[in-house]
Amino acid sequence: MRAFVVTAPHTAHIQEVAAPVAKAGQVVVKIARVGICGTDVEFFNGSMPYLHDGQAKYPIRIGHEFTGTVVRLGPGVDQSWMGKRVVGDVMMGCGKCSRCTEGRQHTCQDRFEIGIRNGFDGALAEEMSIETRFLLELPNEIDETLGALVEPGANAWRVANAAMAAPGKRILIFGTGTIGLMSAQFCMAMGAEVHLIGVDPKQFPLALEVGAKSVNTDVQPIAGGYHVVVDCTFDPSIPAKAVESVEPGGRVVLIGVDDHAANINSRLLVFRDITVVGILSASPGLQNSIDYIKAGKVDLGMLVGATVGLDQAIDIFNGKRPAGAGVGPKILVDPAR
Ligand SMILES: [Zn+2]
Ligand SMILES: [Zn+2]
After folding, report:
1. Which ligand places an atom closest to the C-alpha of 34?
2. Out of 215, 242, 243, 326, which residue is the most buried by the measure of CB atoms under 10 Å away?
């Protein structure tokens, strides 16, 4: 089968590789769609922090925002899995340690992350293998396109949940990329008012179409201030800005990661009674994301700019938008094309 392999910074190929084998407890999923995300781009350009601390190394088969159909079963797997349409948890804990048994498997020391950590082959390929305990069934109401958005959507659900988004809450989000816009959608679905900050004015019309009350290139003061400020960027100067911009007694939610650690003023956190929440991964939000998408409470599909084949994926990583692409920041890959 064909797979997208990154062999060195800015170097990737579509390679013919051995078809995956379903080991005990695993199935093979035929990939229908896989989204390209900021983490994938960081692996391509070499800036991904895991490449520098030993949690990942080249060559790497990337891709983790997937949906597909179960086509082969490993030993011990129930027959009912055959033919199921699924999405998966990217974070795959050992299942035995206290973090795993206490429901924090996404923080397991020994976890694999699909297409990211400890050499687990990713979904930017025709097929991938995965243990059934990390799969969720996709309801028929959710098509392939939306299925590939469940995982980033779950990250955004977790942002909105950590922000305690609700009617009467004013939330400021830094970042108008996929996670920024999806986080805005989930915060609004929970009843909050959302203001966005972006660097690229070309993305502002889409931010307004999503339903943001305002979108600007820098923080604008508003009556009553912001109850919550969220960082969905790769910019290390934003966490400190978020702490400075939030109302006393408010919350700061951090999901963006830069290759440089950001400094924040701890005294401000104390004197202004600010709660800071970090979000790693979609894991605890996957079912919520499915439920919101299925119920039509969020319209994540409007963020998809284009769907391309595996061969064209390399162009995407080289920064070329496909001809005829829409304004949406998210690009999906259909390996069958
Ligand atoms: Zn991702
Ligand atoms: Zn564990």
Report:
1. 1
2. 242
Answer yes or no: do 90 and 185 share one domain.
Answer: no
The answer to whether position 209 is within a domain reads: yes
Does the pTM surpass 0.85? The reply is: yes
What is the average pLDDT across 235-242? 95
Number of domains into which the chain is organized: 2
Asked if residue 143 belongs to a domain, the reply is no
315 membership: H or E segment, kind and range: helix 310-317
For residue 19, what are its two tokens? 């078809």
- 188/271 same-domain check: yes
Q: How far is the CA of 42 from the centre of ligand 1 (A)?
A: 11
Rounded distance from Cα 152 to ligand 1 centre (Å): 6
Q: How far is the CA of 188 from the centre of ligand 2 (A)?
A: 34
In this structure, is residue 87 part of a structural domain? yes
Give the pLDDT score at 106: 96
Give the structural domain span for 233: 155-278
Which ranges in the chain belong to alpha helices (H)? 38-45, 49-53, 98-101, 144-147, 150-162, 178-189, 204-210, 238-245, 266-271, 286-294, 310-317
Residues 317, 225 share a domain: no
